[in-house]
Amino acid sequence: QVQLQESGPGLVKPSETLSLTCTVSGYSISSGYYWGWIRQPPGKGLEWIGSIYHSGSTYYNPSLKSRVTISVDTSKNQFSLKLSSVTAADTAVYYCARENWNDKGNWFDPWGQGTLVTVSS
Amino acid sequence: EIVLTQSPGTLSLSPGERATLSCRASQSVSSSYLAWYQQKPGQAPRLLIYGASSRATGIPDRFSGSGSGTDFTLTISRLEPEDFAVYYCQQYGSSWYTFGQGTKLEIK
Known about the structure:
The structure holds 2 protein chains of 2 kinds.
Chain A: E1 3-7, E2 11-12, E3 18-25, E4 34-40, E5 47-53, E6 58-60, E7 68-73, E8 78-83, E9 92-102, E10 105-111, E11 115-119
Chain B: E1 4-7, E2 10-13, E3 19-29, E4 34-39, E5 46-50, E6 54-55, E7 63-76, E8 86-93, E9 96-99, E10 103-107
Parallel strand pairs in B: 2-10
Antiparallel strand pairs in B: 1-3, 3-7, 4-5, 4-8, 5-6, 8-9, 8-10
């Protein structure tokens, strides 16, 4: 069964770059699918950040695009998120998830357990 | 950007009752691109419905989705204690995803 696990610093200083990695087990990223990042500020709703294909093709939320870079390392079966110039508004639980699609549409499943990243000096 | 508005914000019901949750889009959404998730405190969202009406693997048949265009509904036919949670709708269009703000289903 496919499992995803986020990892990275839980505290980042304002103006610095947030870096997270998602490790996938039970499925080889090289076999296909897009893989995405979604975040959730404390007590608030969900916001899609962006997604990447195993080939490295990416697409991003237009509202975050100027600050986001998502990359993939198929040798480690991982994909990563970098978000630059962070502020307190970027404090959130960050989830990674597999993006599924067919003629029934697009959706995220499964999800990682999430990791809280706090932006504070 | 397609904005999804969920209503009500909070729904108070008792176990055994029927729950009807609404998700309204600011523009027409292809019914193939509407999904529903359940989220419990401290947990990641869990996929319930995709393609507006297809249940995900392992989801009980008391959960059903319907709708088209701009109006979509998640129905829980008979509430179980474990169904009290926050529910989100999600759409995919023009190469990006948006989520509704959520409906909290609480025990009355």
